[in-house]
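Subject: Interface between my chains keeps coming out wrong

I've been trying for a while to get a sensible model of this assembly. When I model each chain on its own everything looks fine, but I need the whole thing in one frame so I can look at the contacts. Pasting all components below, labels as-is. Any help appreciated, I'm running out of ideas.
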Amino acid sequence: MMPVVVVHGGAVQVPEERAEITISGVCSAARSGYLVLEEGGSSLDAVVEAVVQMENSPYFSAGCGSVLNVKGEVEMDAIVMDGKTLGSGSVSAVRDIANPVQLARLVMEKTSHAFLTAEGASKFARSVGVPEVSQESLITEYSRMFWKKNLLMSREKMGTVGAVAVDKDGNVACATSTGGMPNKMEGRVGDTPCVGSGGYADNQSGAVSATGHGEANMRVTLSRLILFHMEQGQSAEAASDLGLAYLKSRLGALGGVVTVDPQGNWTSRFSTQQMPWAAAQNDTLHYGLNSGEHFRRSFSEQH
Amino acid sequence: MSAVLVVHGGAWAIPDELAEASVDGVKTAARKGFVVLRNGGSALDAVEAAVKSLEDNTVFNAGHGATLNIDGEVELDAIIMDGRTLNCGAVSSVKNIANPVSLARAVMEKTSHIMLTGKGANLFAESVGFSTVPTDTLVSEFERKEWERHKTYVTGVLEDFNTQWAHDTVGAVAVDSSGNVACATSTGGIRNKMVGRVGDSPVIGCGAYADNFSGAVSCTGHGESILKVTLAKLILSHVEQGESVADASQLALQYMGERVQGAGGAITVSPSGKWAATFTTQRMAWAAAENDVLWSGLDPNERKKENLN
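Reply #2:
Try treating it as a single job with all components included. I did that and got this:
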């Protein structure tokens, strides 16, 4: 059994000029998550750390850098799930906080509920001392430019971020976070915070974090679908491919996932042309962006 | 291909004083929904009609008669799904709407999204002409009293959360004469829930799911437990593996009990017209309309039969 952290930065087209920084971002997130595991942290700690990093980076559509809704405002969704207990925490349409994935974890750990939305989520955040940040601090030049372009129906997408991990005790976990769909209607909630769609984790089968067209992922409950295949004996890779193939054949939609099983086998699969991803396991950092890419670097090379 | 409609009015320890009204309510809803099917309407139209009837009935925790959150307000969740296209519409934490299931349908049919929440959902409702109703008209005397009574509990009792608290979500599943299946679920959520708490009901695959290839499900019970096991999808995965709708429902509910100590209920229908109403709580008010027969039940293993006139 080899602990591993796998992250993705959204199954979307990454513009040429952002390719390098995006890859650097997922690599950094995977390594940070893995460091947590090395220091004895749980898979839950690791996925939250990895996603927090990507939320803090302005180069991903989660937390800072989130795409804007039709009114030019930031509304964020996130989920965490603990494969040991099947417990999950989700927030949807939450505003003015830096790290929705952390709030999602607090929902799971500090309330008897699993999902808080909108004003209720903000009220809870205040009650547990999560600092409010200005809308402006979450909006980047890029997301604003994107918003203006999309007002003209350019229909480009920007990605969700996510991570899965398995720790030395064989516990799996997942986390997913997003600003949602560019120019979405106010209050639109996608797959991300919906258990079974944006993510699912179960110590008996594995963990998945999904990205792509939110509504399509929801209609097939993509994460849960992949794990059903794994329960029936498929490998992480085969199960992920089956799930993505079904998404395409049934709905004509494309997407991407990162998947791990309790033994530490992992995969990053996507039917779009690009999905920035990275995985850290043993002494190796794996990563890629374009379909078919799989680069490797040893950690010891870095130091 | 004969059409079938099944409805439920919540899986929980329904007290005797609510029992008769609950069973009457589900029977009325089943009749209303079945008329739609009899007249050649779709499964989607039928489940909407049935759930609207349950929302309008103050005996159930949905629409009128919905339970109050900790601030004494009504926040509603609902979902509707079309098994033919896998299209879905859902709303969470929406306020002052008498029929959230119809709003959920409007999300499905009039937007490119599936789920709208909170203020955004209400703005949408306004934009497509849904009238808002004052909170007072949605709040029943019973719920107001219960809220006041439970305010004193909130600081302490979270054990036995499962069994003691009301879980009377409502829902319906149907298959029409074309073999299309559909489902709908609607709820006010858990009494004294935190502001903005969303349960399983509007979460696709958890509170409900419909797929012409396997069937349609609507769930009720302890929402947080249903979310943990994605109950609706779990039931249908057993159906896909060859189990009957009854066995699939039983297996899944049993698993939920064993794995996460959660109790609940589900109504399930297959594309060929087989149906089941299954629960692991003390009671579940349910009714099913098929051919000329109206079935109903409340206690475990109870199945009453009468003419559907």
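Reply #3:
Confirming on my end. Residues 215 and 270 of chain B are 4 Å apart (CA to CA).
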